[in-house]
Amino acid sequence: MSPTTSNLPALGHVTFLGAGPGDPGLLTLRAVEALSHADVLIADERVLDVVRAHARENVDMPLQPVVDESSAADRVPVLRDVTNLVMGAARGGKRVVRAVTGDPGLDGDATAEMLACAAEGIVFEVVPGVATLVGVPAYAGVPLRDADGVDVRFIDARKATDRRWLEVGASEATAVVSTTLEAVAAAAGELVAAGRKPDTPMTVTVAGTTTRQRTWNATLGTVAQVLKAAKVLPSPDAGQPVIAVVGERCAAARREQLSWFESKPLFGWKVLVPRTKEQSASLSDQLRSYGAVPHEVPTIAVEPPRTPQQMERAVKGLVTGRYEWIAFTSVNAVKAVREKFEEYGLDARAFAGIKVAAVGEQTAAALVDFGVKPDLVPSGEQSAAGLLEDWPPYDAVFDPIDRVFLPRADIATETLVAGLIELGWEVDDVTAYRTVRASPPPADTREAIKGGGFDAVLFTSSSTVRNLVGIAGKPHNVTVIACIGPATAKTAEEHGLRVDVLSPEPSVHKLAEALADFGAARRAAAVEAGDQVTRPSERRPGSRRRARS
Prior knowledge:
The protein is of the alpha/beta class. It has 21 helices and 19 strands.
């Protein structure tokens, strides 16, 4: 090998990745894997947030220009800049992920970038994604084919020639048209001029596969009037890409039965969850499955105890065999003990020979993540009372040690301590962490809370009620108030809030389920009355005017 060749840097690798139409759940497993190993991430603006969530914290994301789809003159130099970004990173030996909306195989710009890689000998791969032209109709409840296998034609209205319009217009195929909200009526006119009947059914979907998705039924001849009556034009969304599906057999008559996404019980609801992201991860996932948009606002901050010596003595006693049991009643308690273990160079092996109890699924999961499988979790109610129902009484014959280590918050109730003492146990009740009121959320969040920008708020304890009102103000009266139990509901009412939803069990997941049932009943009532299905926040005075100003 010549000196010149050996001094050349090794070329990197490029993954052309399809990020789908917008729903983060449509990323493939292979896409998530590729993102986790990327050194450099270059993504279309529309899917940047979707892919960024799966990239490494230190991934390089160079400033990426926005492509103006409406101007061919502006488009070419911008696309050249994107290609230069991809090629420059790959020449430097980096692993590059180039994420595009939909599927790379249907993206002409991605194809040009692949050819540039091939010309320089840069290794690349393609990770297919859900194509926008297929994914959006599926989320709108618009099947593109029926049992008779009608033909399907795809057309990009922004690039279509007169010949292409004539080809699609003269056929009986289902036409899937990519266009913009402001140009959809013109596209319908092109199809009519090319031979389609004005009464041909069509659907128009904006923001497809996201919780902002909206779909309208119309015909080629009435679409302009339908969009005008719906007051969507003029609109901030006017230039946003939309997918229109046109055809006798495709959709409009069947969409009421097949609209599975927009008919979710909390579709588009902005739900305030007054917990940290760590605490609310599974709850937020559950809300998303109902079509909601969760927004986490911490109302409680966790701080170390003012006097750490008690906690230090208890952890040392745990290692030296002072305790028969340790009981965790929260994720924060697990975190506090784990941090103390790490400070002393200990790991999960220090729990050997000690029985471990946990209240709640998330607490148990935090222990498993630590490497500890709980010996006791309440079989019924996930609370201190539920734990006491299953806790064995102290038996001097079978229990060599009579002491329990209970790490908990400074404001925890005495229910568990009193119950364990009654069962014959000695309890070291140790303050493992303090809970203090969190800092106020950003100004726009506070305004949304007080002004009715949230459709619902989930209160999971009396303290979340008091703290949210204290740091952000009282939720607007159009906001649906959901409480985890009677005590929390009483606190909410004391603060002047109307409680709309009460969980049948003291569980955050049952609370979310109860809110979904409330949303489903509200939707069903609107449909039965022939009214438009709206979110609670759309009922506040002037909300439609502000949304469109």
